[in-house]
DNA sequence: CAAAAATTATAACAACTGGTCTACATACAT
DNA sequence: ATGTATGTAGACCAGTTGTTATAATTTTTG
């Protein structure tokens, strides 16, 4: 039972990685199959609705992974300024090490599919909201007023996503670093 | 001579729009040809290097258009806080009217091509740098110290790009609005 | 062991991809 | 008028896309 699910998991894991790196349309089912070492028959057995379903489940895996990373990072420090700043700097560090080859987690799928697939768009929306809410909850738990915490959660999420996109394109972690540096001034 | 260049311009204009809306890989040459009303022969006459060259020139047109929009918006008010805030709110307003169908100007191409085409990646980088620099120059011209202005230019650019991406995915201009609201606190 | 269910293996599908090629028309120079 | 770029027009190519259908195989169950 454990090993049997691993075929589906292998497909999702590989698809997750490729969609993130190359985007939705540039990633072919054949490539996913080949790189995951799984047979093509299995793909439509596990994902009868085809590419869209596979992308959806892959995205959910990716989103959960990123969210865990954010939540864990924010827990490391009780003080929100430090916590958020360290989280972003950790992202920058990881980015520098991996050489930006990893792509931008949710954005690549969001941009390509939001206008052509409502289920995928919705999954991206949920993912982004979960990120945003992680920031907001951290701020609330440190005593910030709720409405202000929501505002800041949205703004910080925007900053981080934008900085990630820019760092990826520039091939340089500077945007992430600069955004981290502004966190103290933004939070008072 | 005037009318003849309009064929190339028509192709670029159509391509520019489609790449922005659908992304690089989802936009086929045939679609560009059909929607622009130009024959395929002309495409490879004007763009002998094919899709990559067409995308590059289209991106440059898009980038210039966006930059002009930023520069014009920033000129409307001498005070940088108001200027930037109004610019972002104008973006939000436009976004609400167009119903987010327009896509995200540079990001869609940046994400899809940065890892597979160095010329395109570089064009995206230049585009983003020009946006960033517009903010920085505005801040410098209002008396801000240069290093701080550069830092803030990068951060504001990140915020705006991120908010645009989030607004697009959420189908809601709230992220843009919230980012605009934080500009005063960010600029002290 | 046999029956049933779960999974994998192929082959084929129509539709499309980016790109090439040649034929044709128009304009402009000499 | 004639020759030469410039530009138009579209058929055509090999390769790939996502998807489907069916057959073979393995695994699980009775």
Apparent shape of chain A: elongated
Let me know the CATH homologous superfamily of chain A: Tetracycline Repressor, domain 2
Structural class of chain A: mainly alpha
Q: Tell me the span between the first and last alpha carbons of chain A.
A: 53 Å
Known CATH architecture of chain A? Orthogonal Bundle
- Please count the beta strands of chain A (DSSP E, at least 2 residues each): 0
CATH class of chain A: Mainly Alpha
The portion of residues forming beta strands of chain A comes to under 5%
Q: Tell me the greatest interface.
A: A-B, 48 and 49 residues
Helix and strand string of chain A, N-terminal first? HHHHHHHHH
CATH topology of chain A, by name, is: Tetracycline Repressor, domain 2
Largest sheet of chain A: none
Q: Tell me the radius of gyration of chain A.
A: 18 Å
Oligomer: homodimer
What are the segments of chain A in which pLDDT stays under 50 over at least 5 consecutive residues?
none
Average pLDDT confidence of chain A is 94
Task: Please give a structural write-up.
By secondary structure, the first copy, chain A, is mainly α. Chain A has one domain: Orthogonal Bundle (Tetracycline Repressor, domain 2). Chain A has nine helices and no strands. Chain A has helices at residues 2-22, 29-36, 40-46, 51-75, 80-98, 107-113, 118-141, 146-170, 174-186. In chain A, α1 crosses α4 (51-75). The radius of gyration of chain A is 18 Å and the shape is elongated. Chain A starts with a helix and ends with a helix. The model of chain A has no long low-confidence stretch (mean pLDDT 94). At the A-B interface, α6, α7, α8 and α9 of A face α6, α7, α8 and α9 of B.
């Amino acid at each position: 039972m454990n090993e049997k699910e691993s075929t589906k998991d292998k497909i999702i894991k590989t698809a997750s990685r490729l969609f993130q790196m190359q985007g939705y349309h540039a990633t072919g089912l054949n490539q996913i199959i080949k790189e995951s070492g799984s047979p093509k028959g299995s793909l439509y057995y596990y994902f009868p609705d085809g590419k869209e379903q596979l992308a959806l489940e892959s995205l959910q895996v990716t989103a959960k992974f990123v969210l865990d990373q954010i939540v864990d990072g924010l827990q490391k420090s009780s003080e929100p300024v430090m916590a958020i700043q360290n989280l972003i700097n950790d992202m920058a560090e990881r980015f520098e090490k991996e050489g930006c080859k990893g792509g931008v987690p949710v954005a690549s799928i969001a941009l390509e599919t939001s206008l052509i697939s409502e289920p995928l768009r919705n999954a991206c929306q949920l993912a982004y909201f979960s990120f945003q809410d992680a920031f907001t909850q951290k701020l609330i738990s440190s005593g910030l007023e709720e409405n202000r915490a929501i505002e800041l959660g949205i703004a910080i999420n925007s900053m981080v996503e934008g900085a990630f996109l820019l760092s990826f394109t520039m091939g340089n972690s500077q945007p992430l670093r600069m955004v981290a540096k502004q966190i103290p001034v933004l939070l008072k």
